[in-house]
Structure prediction request, 654 residues.
Amino acid sequence: MEEIDALLTESRTFPPPPAFAAAAHGNTRDPWSRADADYEAYWAEQARALEWITPWKQVLDWKPPHAQWFLGGQLNVAANCVDRHVRGPARNKAAIIWEGEPGDRRTLTYWDLFVEVRKFANVLTSLGVHKGDRVGIYLPLIPECAIAMLACARVGAIHSVVFGGFSPESLRDRMNDAEAKVLITADGGYRRGQIVPLKRNADKALAESPTVTHCVVVRRLAAGVVDDTFSQMQEGRDHWWHRLMEGAPAGHEPQPMDAEDPLFILYTSGTTGKPKGIVHTTGGYLTGVASSTKLVFDLKDDDVFWCTADVGWITGHSYLVYGPLANGATAVMYEGAPDWPEKDRFWSLCEKHGVTILYTAPTAIRAFMKWGDAHPKKHDLSRLRLLGSVGEPINPEAWMWYHEVIGGGRCPIVDTWWQTETGSIMIAPLPGATVTKPGSATQALPGYAVTLLDSAAKEIGIGGGLLAVTKPWPSMLRTLWRDDARYVSTYFSKWDGRPDLYFPGDGAKRDADNYLWILGRVDDVLNVSGHRIGTMEVESALVEHPAVAEAAVVGRAHELKGQALCAFVTVREGQLTSLALRDELREFVARKIGALARPDDILFSADLPKTRSGKIMRRLLRDIAEGRALGDTTTLADPSVVAGLKAQYEAQES
Ligand code: PRX
Prediction:
């Protein structure tokens, strides 16, 4: 896998707009120079932006592959995200502007958050939660997510947020792995006009989660809708949130935490088997997210920052809750689907709340493209000044659409590469300093040592290779929950004898300007006739065709070429599919990239199989392309999509 032929060339460049650059936090190379000159001093400077109870004695202790940051230091994350703002001019500033899917709204000031978090911290204590205990959070995207997370941080409990779209089995497995004591859930949540029966799911999970002794239930469902079947309370175990809060004392002192005490566990799927419990700690994590939120999003006091991710994912942890709140910013939180009740919901939200910074995912951007420009055009998006992208490579076509249609051609785009494991953004532009190129996450941020290596750990100059991180960073995962051996083998064993090199599992290419282009997971990289092709590049070419909305490319075994390319394509609304279009697309890719990348098969489909977080499940597409039985489909948002595709593929073959 050491070489990945880089086949697409993208030559458009976008310098920071001069007025944006002039006012930006980072508008020179200075942060990089400082970080390069003294790495530890740079991170110490970032950490000093937080409030510490006890100063650290040592910035870094690195015994590969285990790092400890800010040793001897003590702080509390909730005190940093709430209390210190209440003492200053942000006391009455909106911390969270929330909108529910049905259109209900709540705004919590920093003072409100202070009141709620302290009370809920007392509730947790009254339920027997102590420092180091694990608390599960399984909620719709409502302000109680942030209150519960911060209250855990306040008492020193380790939260494990489970995305509200996960099944009872997934919840059960996560609660059992973490041996959680308490679960916080709601009677239900709203998604595309339907009720997600969270409490019912929780009841099923808790029937087989013996460590959970208390369950706190938020009443989310509207009075007229509430029906006991959504919230059958089990005597002794279940408690209404609002009842507990009524009786809770107001005052609460935050628990001083060691910098290296765990803050949370977040489960993420690996290439095989059981989800991995990624463990993040207190001081390093908060340093990484607070610093990157300010720098990458150029966060200012009057910004309205909307990160569209759910708190069930790392993006929601870092850039919906901890990063914005640590900076005393105003964050927008939206419970529901982007196409409910209409396909303009995001743009209506941007207009209504005066969003200035929007951070979303390429999969959403491609959906918006498919739905057409009329939806955003109906709304005044002129307050937007910066756009962000995360989660997968953004193809240049989607980047340009985002730039022009959403950003009105004036907003820089920050394409941010990072992972659940990295805790905070590692590769991204500084919007006031970096010339961007559509499709490139550009370069590592100051304080991050990212490079490209071949399989012998030799550095690659220009060309494709394996992404590697050569120095520890404050917000890195520390271990996998109760499975340190898997931590070592998954992330630090790629290069023999080099436990100091972190392997994220992604391939990338470096261009002549030293820019990085993420090519995706290396298991998504194909070898066609001896050429290594990032499936993303073929997908990117396909979606440049005006008929195509979304494409996923996988490999299947091929006698002569090693692997053949198989493309699954969804077309734009109103576009008809035909054999002629299939041939046209094959030629289109051949023209864009070269004959070697011409897809052997193209299958049109109304939908692609996606996880609930929106990632296309290529593993299942490979199963279809190779004619195998379908593997595990339990993490799919809609399992029927994949069965339909398989039938269609087989019909086409015969
Ligand atoms: O393959 C990379 C892709 O998402 C992976 C991490 O997934 P997860 O832990 O779920 O975190 C997603 C949100 C941070 C990475 O290994 N990825 C993430 N951001 C980008 C990306 N690929 C390309 N460009 C990005 N900006």
In short: The mean pLDDT is 92.
